Structure formats: structure tokens, C-alpha cells
Amino acid sequence: MAELPEHVARNRAAWNELAAEYEPDGRRNWSQEEPAWGIWSVPESELGVLPAELEGRDAIELGCGTAYVCAWLARRGARPVGIDNSEAQLATARALQAEFGLEFPLLHGNAERVPFPDASFDLAISEYGASIWCDPYEWIPEAARLLRPGGELVFMVGSVLALLCDPDEGEEVPVGDRLQRPYFDLHRVEWTGEDAIEFHLNHGDMIALLRANELEVEQLIEVRPPPGSTTRYPHIGLEWARRWPCEEIWRARKSV
Ligand SMILES: C[S@@+](CC[C@H](N)C(=O)[O-])C[C@H]1O[C@@H](n2cnc3c(N)ncnc32)[C@H](O)[C@@H]1O
């Protein structure tokens, strides 16, 4: 096997360690009939993230983790495949497949190099998977390659604004209302005391990258949790998230 890029190897080790912690969230999401997105679990009916027509569509989840997004797609009639870099996350996904009686292929690998031919899928999706742990200059061209003409790329990430306002003093110190780092030249991000490596682009660079890969931006959903929402991620407070977007979902379509 070819040697993994440094960030992929580091993220593999980090996610193998984190996997057990994410199992309860995985089960909770698998057991939900209606998809609910992000740290505030905003229902699909409010956000409209998924394509309206999924019956018979080939879909790939890039960085599927516990694979609940694949499960939501399968229940809507799609044919999902999940790929993830962590054996431990995939072990949870397989256990949840058995528990919920739903089978679809799960591959162990790097979402920057996916072992499928060009134009294999109608939908490529990532919810905090490849979308933050892979280098966008690698995974977005790869997603574009995998999509058929007219296919959709949908991905969720933490917002650029929340990233800029994060004091980087650990999970207990919440995101504030002051800019802490530059907007320009965003790319690789390493948080103090954390092993995993994230990637983020500012909006101008993201749009340029999508367009360079024949992906036309159709929508940028800036998630606003409804009043009274609760989260298991206290790093961002509800008051903050009601005033500024703390998460964003991009929808882009491959040129025909
Ligand atoms: C927060 S989870 C998101 C997945 C899913 N929504 C969930 O919560 O279970 C992040 C996942 O991205 C995966 N990941 C990180 N780097 C990856 C890469 N290069 N290729 C594929 N998956 C990757 C991790 O192994 C992890 O399972």
C-alpha cells in the first residue's frame, strides 16, 4: 500500500482513538427516521440538505464515520457507499448496520483517493468527514471526478466565522465575539493540544476551488438553530449561534 500523506496518517491514528467516544452519537443518529444536521441537530425538514429525489441514486459518503448519513440515504431509496480512514469508526458502523438491519458497502481508505472509476455517483456527501479532515485541494477534485454530470456535492463544515473567533484554549473555552486569526490564507489548521489536523478554506477560496472543478455552487446554508435548541457540543453557545452562523452546508452541482 502506498504511504499515506502525513495528515491522513495522523488523522487515522487520532480517529481510531476517538471512535469509542462517537459510538453513542452514531447510534442516536442511526435511530432517527428524519435526518438532523450538525451540532444543533436541525431537522432536514427545516434545512433541506438532501436532494429531493434519492430513489435509485448512487451515493458516496466521504469520511462516513459511523455511517448514519449513509443509513438516512439508504432509507430514502439511495444506494450508498461509505468510505472512512479509521478502522475503528468502521467497526462501529458495521455493528450499527447489524443492529439496525441495513447493509451497504463500507470501505476502509482515504477519501482523497477513492477506488471507484470516474462518474460513478449521483451524490457525494460529507458531514464533518472529508469536508474538514481532508485537504480540500485533494478531496474536492476527487469528489468532482467521482460525480456524474449533473451530480451533487453536499458537505457540512464548521463555519469560517466560528473558526476565526475560536480562542483555541480547549473545548471548555467557548467561541467568542472577537476575531482571533486571519481570514486570508486559511488551509491547514492545528489546534493546540490536539493530534488531528483540520482543513478550512475561506469562502472566496472555496468558491474558486469548486468552480475550478466544474462544480457550480447552488446553495450555502448557514445553519441557524431554532430558539431553545440544545447541543452536546458546548464549545459554541446558543446565543452565539443565534447571532452568527456556526455551521455551513455547501451544495454544488457538477456541470453537465
Ligand atoms: C466527525 S466524523 C464524521 C463522520 C460522521 N458524520 C460521524 O459523525 O460519524 C469524522 C470522520 O472522518 C474520517 N476521516 C478523517 N480523515 C479521513 C480521510 N482522509 N478519508 C476518509 N475519512 C476520513 C474519520 O476517520 C472520522 O470517522
Provide a concise account of the structure shown.
Helices cover 34% and strands 23% of the residues. It is an alpha/beta fold.
3D architecture notes:
The chain is of the alpha/beta class and 256 residues long. The protein is 34% helix and 23% strand. The chain contains nine helices and eleven strands. It has a seven-stranded mixed β-sheet, sandwiched between helices. A two-stranded antiparallel ribbon has the order 1-2. The chain has a two-stranded antiparallel sheet with strand order 8-9. The protein is globular, with a radius of gyration of 17 Å. The protein starts with 5 loop residues before the first helix and ends with a strand. The mean pLDDT is 97. The site of S-adenosylmethionine (SAM) has 24 residues, from helix 1, strand 4 and helix 5. The site of S-adenosylmethionine has 24 residues, from helix 1, strand 4 and helix 5.
